[in-house]
Design goal:
The chain is 86% helix and 0% strand. It has 3 helices and no strands.
């Protein structure tokens, strides 16, 4: 991955807002800041290793050999120095890759945990909603049955009262006593 691409990715991250169960924006920002700081540190270390290698190469080309013994020793030392600088640069790159992999794995693990928690919360809400709906339906059925029973009782009472009133009118009593 080129440093331009890395810079673009780290300096201009794009996230879409979550509808439900998303991530806290401040936590995402904090994670991106930590990842950016780590990558910048590793890039700085790599650049320092590359500078050391370039300095060693420059010294190799600038130092004239002092006779046969000096000419043999200087290139040998320069070659060793160059090898050490290359090893240092390789180690810095490997460290950067390991750190990037660790950060990515950590982010994926945390994202999976939050996604699982969001799914569980959604399932809990849905289950509670279904349970409450069943309770309300049962209460509604009970109320409808109570209403039907009350209407029957009122209807029977009205019929009974009408019968009593008719009996009084037939007996000619006029008003009940």
């Amino acid at each position: 991955m080129s440093s331009t691409t890395t810079d673009e990715i780290l300096h201009t991250p794009r996230f879409s807002p979550a509808r439900r169960g998303g991530y806290l924006e401040t936590e995402v920002d904090a994670f991106v800041e930590r990842a950016l700081a780590t990558v910048l540190d590793l890039q700085h270390r790599l650049a320092a290793s590359e500078d050391a290698r370039a300095d060693a190469e420059a010294r190799l080309h600038a130092t004239p050999g002092a006779g046969t013994g000096g000419a043999v020793d200087t290139p040998t030392r320069a070659l060793r120095l160059l090898e050490m600088a290359q090893q240092s640069a390789d180690a810095a790159v490997a460290d950067a890759q390991q750190e990037a992999e660790r950060l990515l794995a950590d982010a994926q693990e945390r994202a999976a945990a939050r996604e699982d928690a969001a799914r569980q919360a959604a399932a809990d809400v849905e289950r509670a909603s279904r349970e409450r709906q069943a309770e309300l339906e049962a209460e509604t059925a009970d109320l409808l049955e109570s209403e039907r029973a009350a209407r029957l009782q009122v209807h029977e009472l009205v019929r009974h009262l009408n019968g009593v009133l008719e009996k009084y009118h037939e007996d000619g009593a006029g008003t009940p006593q």
